[in-house]
Amino acid sequence: MSPMYIGFVAAILGTICWIPQAWKVWATRDTSSLSLASNLMFLATVSLWLVYGIMVTDWPLILANTCAVMAVLTIVTAKLKFG
User: Average pLDDT of 64-78?
Assistant: First the structure.
């Protein structure tokens, strides 16, 4: 199996895991159990991976981290908005 395919599978799984959390937060407006600091650190992490992916033109990294940034940004926005 090509390393690129492994990268895309990892990208898909790594992105999908955040979607249910983002959906639940917006649907319930309940963010009491979420750590803002932890989510901000993860947002910084995936943002840096996105920049790195762009710098080295690695499409699995770019796609995965673009989606992850959007999902985690949704969670952070909800945490700031709903407390």
Answer: 92
